[in-house]
Specification:
Blueprint: E1 4-13, E2 16-26, E3 31-35, H1 42-50, E4 57-62, E5 65-66, E6 77-80, H2 92-97, H3 108-122, H4 137-150, E7 155-159, H5 167-184, E8 187-192, H6 195-201, E9 204-209, E10 212-217, H7 219-224, H8 229-234, E11 241-250, E12 253-258, E13 261-266, E14 275-281, E15 286-288, E16 301-310, E17 315-320, E18 325-330, E19 341-346, E20 351-354, E21 361-364, H9 366-373
Parallel strand pairs: 3-8, 3-9, 6-7, 7-8
Antiparallel strand pairs: 1-2, 1-4, 4-5, 9-10, 11-12, 11-14, 12-13, 14-20, 15-19, 16-17, 16-19, 17-18, 20-21
Helix pairs in contact: 3-4
Length: 376
């Protein structure tokens, strides 16, 4: 295992800054996921850690040693790529062992034993004699992982390894990756644009945007207490409802007013003044009024249905007040038609306020913070 320290790391390509002054610590044995939209710099950051790209500025430390100029093979890292990178004319066995020096560091018998152990871990013992064109996508990815594991790396780097697989196989491979990490116990950094992968795999998740890290926290913390409007929108599906509202303090309570939406939230905040903010509420924290029981809710407000999507276990209703379209995720399985009137309330325990100019989070309802802190 290894500890990784990044200190104001920067990577430029001409006039384009792909990684913009990132400082980050990854603990021994941690599974850290880098997630963000295409072009945010997550793959470049991974390649820079591996040594495939040279940083423009900043330091990369592995176990306390600065490795800025060290070649990839001397950094104790192994990388798995999105496109597998297997030689088509070689068997799976040869692809896995290619590059290992059988006449130097390892004997043939040692390599055979190592391959047997790794193949058993990945359940590919029966595939070792096959060439890549005889393997499925998932089998190719296992072979690519096996090649990386044979190097016995201190750091395991994975760059969107599941993106070429179909949905069912991605689900299966996510489970296998979790088991694999528990078994090999190597420090792992995993890049993906898929928030489901990020939230289910990571001990912590770093959300990247425009070459910078917006927030790095355990998955539930990201979801319940987003540090910025960008994180709030990116994490969660359907994404958080966001709309501008006027906030005032009335009798030591925050009052939020926006169009037909109005509510009072118990408690005040020194970070909130009387002015306009961007208000956030997740689709599952909006309820049809006749289903809302047992909690503190906003005043009811009426919306008109524009569209509904059936997800099997729930329905996502898109409804508008004439200015803002809200997404409501409801467990009811009733049919909603365009133009239907629905009366909605919001759970006041799960509201968020963001600075309208900077996007920085300034307030989260008490229960959101409490829920997130339970995983720390």
């Amino acid at each position: 295992m290894a500890r990784i320290e990044l200190d104001t790391l920067r990577k430029e390509f001409g006039e384009t800054t792909a990684v913009d002054g990132i400082s980050l610590s990854v603990a021994d044995g941690e599974f850290l996921v880098l997630v963000g939209p295409s072009g945010c710099g997550k793959s470049t950051l991974l390649r820079t850690i591996s040594g495939l790209e040279t940083q423009t500025a900043g330091d990369i430390g592995v176990n306390g040693e600065i490795v800025n100029t060290a070649p990839p093979k001397e950094r104790g890292v192994a990388m798995v790529f999105q496109n597998y990178a297997l030689y088509p004319h070689m068997s799976a066995y040869r692809n896995m062992t290619f590059g290992l020096d059988s006449h130097g560091s390892f004997t043939d018998d040692e390599i055979e034993q190592m391959v047997a152990e790794v193949a058993a871990t990945l359940d590919i013992q029966e595939l070792l004699d096959r060439r890549p064109d005889e393997l499925s996508g998932g089998e190719k990815q296992r072979v690519a992982m096996g090649r990386a594991l044979l190097r016995e790396p201190e750091v395991f780097l994975l760059d969107e390894p599941l993106s070429n697989l179909d949905a069912k196989l991605r689900d299966e491979m996510r489970t296998e990756l979790t088991h694999l990490h528990e078994e090999i116990d190597a420090t792992t950094i995993y890049v993906t644009h898929d928030q489901t992968e990020a939230l289910t795999l990571g001990d912590r998740v770093a959300v990247m945007n425009d070459g910078q890290i917006e927030q790095v926290d355990p998955p539930q913390q990201l979801y319940d207490v987003p540090a910025s409007q960008f994180v709030a929108e990116f994490i969660g599906s359907p994404q958080m409802n966001l709309f501008e509202g006027e906030v005032t303090t009335v009798n030591d309570q925050l009052h939020v007013e926006s169009g037909r939406f109005g509510t009072t939230v118990p408690g005040t905040s020194q970070t909130v003044s009387d002015r306009r903010y961007t208000v956030g509420v997740r689709p599952e924290d909006l309820y049809l009024a006749d289903e809302a029981t047992g909690h503190q809710y906003s005043d009811p407000f009426e919306l008109r249905v524009e569209l509904s999507e059936t997800l099997g276990d729930s329905v996502v209703v898109y409804a508008t007040d004439g200015e803002t379209t809200f997404q409501i995720r409801t467990s009811t399985r009733q049919q909603f038609d365009k133009g239907d009137a629905v009366t909605v309330v919001a759970d006041t325990r799960r509201l968020h306020l963001f600075d309208t100019d900077t996007g920085v989070a300034v307030y989260h309802s008490k229960d959101s913070v409490s829920a997130a802190h339970t995983i720390r």
